[in-house]
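CORE FACILITY INTAKE
Project code: CF-77B
Contact: R.S. (postdoc)
Sample description: multi-component assembly, two entities in total
Requested service: structural model of the whole complex
Turnaround: standard
Below are the sequence entries exactly as provided by the requester. Do not edit them.
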Amino acid sequence: MPYTYNTPDDERAMLQSIGVASVQELFQSVPEEFRLQRPLDLPPALGELELTQHISALAAKNANAQQKACFLGGGSYDHFVPAVVDALASRGEFYTSYTPYQPEVSQGNLQVMFEYQSLICQLTGMDVSNASLYDGGSAVAEAVLLAMSVTGRNRVVVPASMHPEYRQILQTYFACIGGELVTVPTPSGVVSVADVAAVVNGETACVVVQHPNFFGGLEDVAALSQVAHDAGALLIHSFDPISLGVLKRPGDLGADVAVAEGQSLGTPMLFGGPYLGIMACKEQFVRRMPGRIAGQTVDRRGRRCWVLTLQTREQHIRREKATSNICTNQGLFALRAAIYLTEMGPQGLREVAELCVRKAHYAREQITSHPRFTSAFEGPTFKEFVVRDTQGRVGELIEQAADAGYLAGVPLAPWYPDLADCFLVAVTEKRTKPEIDGLVQTLATTLRNAAPRPHGAVLART
Amino acid sequence: MRNLKTSTLIFELSKPGRRGAKLPACDVPSPEINQLLPAAALAAAPPPLPEVAEPEVVRHFTNLSTLNMSVDTHFYPLGSCTMKYNSKRNERLAGLPGLAELHPYQPESSLQGILQIFYELQQFFGEISGLPAVSLQPAAGAHGELTALMVAAAHFRTIGQKRTKILAPDSAHGTNPASAKMAGFEFVTIKSTPQGNVDMDDLRAKLDDTVAVFMITNPNTLGMFDKQVGEICKLVHDHGGLIYLDGANMNAILGIARPGDFGADMMHYNPHKTFSGPHGGGGPGAGPICVTETLRPYLPCPVVEKNDDGYCLVYDNPTTIGRVRSFFGNVGVLIRAYCYISTHGPDGLKRVSETAVLNANYLLSKVKHFLPVPQGARCMHEFVASGAALKKAKGISAMDVAKRLLDYGFHAPTVYFPLTVAEAMMIEPTETESKETLDSFAEVLFRITEESGDLLHEAPHSTPISRPDEVRAARQPIIKWTPATA
């Protein structure tokens, strides 16, 4: 039932004050011909207990990462979330407030936005950050639109080693606005700087590179940014926030715009969202940046405080001339990231990153020491790597590993036909040696005696 | 009891060597990092994040939270934002490990519960809107608008029509024109009448076969149901165009009227408004869209379908516009919407709208005597009062009134929107407020109109800060903390 207060007496008094006889009379402006003459065809209302039982039963039909060791990555990761993140972010004053239109009663949210922006700048080495976008994929799209707007050019160069869904989002946006997406093949798992240089020209708005890339490999961002800059184009670096515990920062590698999926920073996997789109850039582009930004100022008594600022970029003022149609940020997840980064600190973040590298390295070595499996690519990786199943039965392997308690990897067939016999394995700091050894054991033995299943193919994710 | 030292920045609390989290020792045999990764890629030191102990983290953010007004603590009649009660049961359920600890690339066989939720939610949204084809993927209302306009563009490409324009009234949310531009269209503004309805003459004058979509918010941003909507839809359809309904105001018509029945071809929901997702200090929201069967082929992929083996994600649609967001969308918000709809059922949802409209009209009946409401004596779920007379008589602006309300413990209405009403105050009480709260709010609002201009120009007086200098913030932007130079 609705969460309402009105008693029949209240309702009578209210109708009298309005001067109508019934609630129905209030809907007179809705033409009769458009009134729904029947109840909505929806299931009957459930009380809290029934709802809890219903949802719990549905949740129990899923296999979750607390039940099965999760080695899945590709942009969503099973990283550890400290208890303080949930405890603080679930406070109603954060949770049930909205965009800080009235700064006097929103200093909590505004200061968090300002601290988040500052933390992202410290993390990335970039000049300025907004207060977040929807997710990593739309952040890439917004960064590309920024680059096209700044340069007045519409050619965008992207290696195939960038997240395929991020590239799909770009294609979707480009179908409407006429951008030209040039995808550079990455047969070795990382892009060749020379291959990029060969397609970057005077029409190029930006080079977009993911580092560590979709396969976990390390790209030469500094060299690619040189290539982009030599052509008057921007370099957009899509990064993994956790990797910056050990790797050089986008700002140190020459990036003009740095974007990321921020889910790793204190948010559970949530089947893909809501997440956090991180976006930071060089100072000169700040007035082209989409999304909310909090700024420091003083109040009428000279006290330091925070407000939404640079709003002339935004749709509610500029309408069709705005830098983007984005209205809200992902405030709650920017808050979670701020709490996470604060709780971790520099040493904690380094430890998380080091554990990822070392455990992923160990897992890769162990899996590929089995004769059935090889590394698809040479070269160092951060926390992910691509395994080739020489028997080419990836779909079955993944299904059966799940039955044995392991979410073993992401099949690459849907996006990369030439990697149809490969899967992507991610190892976070949460994975223990027994879990990794167990995965290796499972992969090595699961299909030894199994007959191939005829319908084991994975559907294309086009 | 509020801690008054709360505005220290977390960076100012940092002290080298302090730390919060500590991670376990590495339990696998492996070389050092510098033997695993090339030196050129490695940073000399980790990023210069603040160094604080966990108790400080907790105190810092807890104290910050107390500087916010929120639905859990205050009446929050922020028009157009539908700040209704966010039920705690939905929070607990959305956090169940069987929903929150799922990876988007798990095998489908391990996702049957959550896929069932989405399959049913697609049906719920289709039934409530009267538009049967649903995509849950867009991440926010504005993202839903953009996605739907891309769907429209794909439709016209497919049928070989070159249509370049999107029309919307001047009272529309700013996202409408901005989305139109991002979808590659030219945007044309249509005038509204003083009642906030579409100016039919202006629409007729600007409507031709280059118009792809007319975007309409109905109930509109003045809180009125535009009775001309049937005529508008017919007119646009006669010219071969499509109707997009901005679903921001669906809280007024659940179970009462369906956009698909009054002629819309496409719409988005704001589930964080209508279906009670917490607003999270500015997000997340979600922006699922519903369209007609004709437009179904263009929806983003994946969508959830049901076959003999159970529920599945369908990707292989050759006519799709593609993908607008990674993975599946803002799942957590959608689960809360599913819980909300399940809690209410058909009668409960209708009751939500009836009560929202009753509460708004009741408040209107109290307020209109001292703050004129230009569009008249009735409204749907919200109304827009004008402070123009007050400003003329006493020099008191809508902003002054908004700021003074904060002193009395009420969040302010939306002010200066829509742009078509002078000194606009857009008030949306929602269904989850009591008559006592509405009475008290109306009384305070009246008292404020009687107060002196001097008092109001400097309001609020009781908040931690008052009247921040926004011009200075924009002219000399300081948008991050900078370490003091040694």
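Facility notes:
- The mean pLDDT of chain B is 95.
- Chain B touches chain A through 207 residues (CB under 8 Å).
Invoice: internal transfer
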